[in-house]
Amino acid sequence: MIGKKFSRKTIITAVAIFVTFVVIAALRLTNSPEYKKERISLQEAEKLYQQALSYNEKQSAPAVKYTMTADYCRKIIKHYPDTPQAEKAEQLLKQIPEKYTAQLAPLKLSTP
Fold this sequence. Notes:
By secondary structure, the chain is mostly helical. It has helices at 8-30, 33-57, 62-79, 84-95, 98-101. α2 runs parallel beside α4.
């Protein structure tokens, strides 16, 4: 073994300090405005996705059902593109017959 041997107490103290540092760093991250904004975005995207699913499952006229579902999906993709819900919305949008999505204006996504 190279180096000095450390006592059990010294190692436990070092681990405790490290864990405390990690907890403090995690708390700072979760209280940051960026984290809060991201969490709210995820909640909003999920809410819109649930509304899209709700319309998709309704037994209403296909024009209403598919148009509303597509509208919610497109809002998610446009406003929350980096969320898991955007991926789900894209898949759901692909299931909608083209004649109901063709009447919608082309979706313009911002490219970084």
